[in-house]
């Protein structure tokens, strides 16, 4: 594969320049390293960095721009009747990329498209060859320039350390960049969506049926995009999950922290943590194939009609998933309450449970509320359990025995399969994603602020 | 909170009233002992609540494990049917050339069908025959071809061969289809069950270890579907994730912990990382879809894109864990290094980083385990395709283990339920392995300063 090959080539060049730089420094020192400003290793690293970093940067930029540029070149040559219609254009682009990848022999498309496909293949070859040439040029230029700069009193170590520091700043900036990336990518498509659908209708509409026509010849309704039923469904499932997770999580944290013998703790705590490590797709399978049928059958014997995709099944299993989250966070908070408060309470003759209820719990309350808020944000964003165990139809109901759908389920169903980035149907997924991001972000920020504001300092 | 506080206030008031005629509390009075009894009962109740909560959580864990193992253990064996089969030269090699190209093209499916008809000669009608052919999997003909290509001397002989059975037959043999239920409500009718019983009484049905499950890619036929393709896809995805998130995460952690000036920008980065750790994973999937597929036009369904997406998701986990590990290295080490004339970068790279490495690796392994179990963001970037081939590189279309589980869980065939559970067991085994390694590292290299 060409990328692996290029990376290996760059790595090899770096190693070579390291050796060259080091050798040159040793030669300049005349056998006494004290003649040099830095250690020979630093001169080697200096040349290696100057050889490798520009080459790597070029590689990344090239790969990021190659696709858009070649596509734009190909599109500019297509006839107007194809490019003017977005639907046709995306079909044509699919065909073109298939032909370019040599998988398009069986396709029945216009000759212009075939030609464009061949052209794209040629462009790719040109681009790949050019990349190899330019990459080698850049790497070798970096190598020779830095090699020539090496003199005995060059401050190689300081230079290297400065570069390393900038690299580390760059790495930290990626954290910010990914947030910016999330916000922009969601916002961009969501604004696209809001130019087709009224934001007020989206935020406050009571009906959700996004089945719009993706191709012009399909028969479908206009679709309605009101997210209230989705949000109501999400909140219903979250509420059920919290009703399971908060009492069980809190009481297990209390028992673990205050009552359990070290032996019991050593066994039970890791066992609880296993629950947190189980992938959500496994919980989804469990909810859909074990819990939901069980609830349906139990409901049938009791004379209740329980939907096989009931909110209850998804909520219960999600609650189980969140138990360790609540329990470990509240365990942390409660163990931070200082021993002196406990001792004071015991000294007044309070029993253990009285101490916990009247002293420890109130002192830890802000932290516990924060933990619960974080758990709520987690439940809202949880995807696989609800995709597998909750329904698809957007019912506005508070009955946990009925099927409801959630924001995440809709995002998945809208984006798995046919995507069309100019239909409101596909774009609505990004609008939902934006709402989801903002809600969870808000909850997290609020939870952290809340904890900070009400945390009493015990020292 | 309030009842005890008010109780104390009441007592205080009572004491004030009676201050001139202070009488000692009679601890043995009936009132007191009743109150103490009540309080102790409350204490016991409270303790029971706690124990019950833990037991409930553990019961959920046991139930989860039980339901998966009981559904899935049978997927590791597969039913084989013994049948007498003639390697008919007229079908395999009509010209007698033994040319591998000819042998490879022969109609082995027809041979199996002939053998089945010979075994049950009273089957005549067309629809009955089709059911009869369902006894043997459509994958068995590939086995025959392999055998013949391997040993052309088989041609012309008649052998008793064990062939892999179809999925319905397999389910019947494993007891998931009961002969006692109504004929209309089961997937096999009475004839097919009759054939099964005939074969069984002739000792021509056997369960064997199902190696294909570990070596095959996905398939529409449950008995041919395996997890190897998904496992390889997961491997490539994780490699890309690790190569990106580990160096970037560690570098960011070092910078934030050791070099960053305490200013607004650093603070923003810190808050940002904490918030990123709590962003739902599906949002990262949307980012991946928009950035990598729509803007950069990277290949859909490729492990490279999956790895890039998961790297962004794992980054906060690794940064937070690495920072904790770096913070745990005592300042005296740094001061000693600086005092001996090392530069700050040398101090970190020669002393702090090696000492913090066990903690960093533990955090990285835990982050990788999360990435291995992650499904939702990969659905967004198209890793849900039905892919039969084993991916050969990180640029090929692939799927990963959790997505394979999701796909199989959606399949209607009964036999896929056990495949799904078995794939879950394999995934959990990998996760336990990784977490075990993390615990081992922590135990082995943890240092108390």
From TrEMBL, chain A:
InterPro entries: MetI-like, MetI-like_sf, Phosphate_PstC, PstC_N
Superkingdom of the organism of origin: Bacteria
Transmembrane intervals: 45-65, 129-147, 167-188, 230-254, 274-295, 302-326, 359-380, 429-451
Cellular localisation: Cell inner membrane; Cell membrane
A single GO BP: phosphate ion transport
Location of the ABC transmembrane type-1 domain: 231-447
Cellular component terms per the entry's GO annotation: plasma membrane
Mode of membrane association: Multi-pass membrane protein
One Pfam family here: DUF3708
Chief location of this protein within or outside the cell: membrane
Keyword vocabulary terms for this entry: Cell inner membrane, Cell membrane, Membrane, Phosphate transport, Transmembrane, Transmembrane helix, Transport
Keyword Ribonucleoprotein: no
GO molecular function: phosphate transmembrane transporter activity
Classification via PANTHER family: PHOSPHATE TRANSPORT SYSTEM PERMEASE, PHOSPHATE TRANSPORT SYSTEM PERMEASE PROTEIN
Biological role stated in the UniProt entry: Part of the binding-protein-dependent transport system for phosphate; probably responsible for the translocation of the substrate across the membrane.
Similarity field: Belongs to the binding-protein-dependent transport system permease family. CysTW subfamily.
Name of the protein in its database record: Phosphate transport system permease protein
Annotated organism of origin: Thalassospira mesophila
TrEMBL record, chain B:
Keywords: Cell membrane, Membrane, Transmembrane, Transmembrane helix, Transport
GO MF annotations, alphabetized: phosphate transmembrane transporter activity
PROSITE patterns referenced in this protein's UniProt entry, alphabetically: ABC_TM1
Transmembrane segments: 48-69, 227-256, 276-293, 305-326, 378-401, 421-441
Topology in the lipid bilayer: Multi-pass membrane protein
SUPFAM superfamilies linked to this entry: MetI-like (SSF161098)
Main location: membrane
Similarity comment text for this entry: Belongs to the binding-protein-dependent transport system permease family. CysTW subfamily.
Matches recorded under NCBIfam families: 3a0107s02c
Protein name: Phosphate transport system permease protein PstA
Organism annotation: Thalassospira mesophila
Upper classification of the organism: Bacteria, Pseudomonadati, Pseudomonadota, Alphaproteobacteria, Rhodospirillales
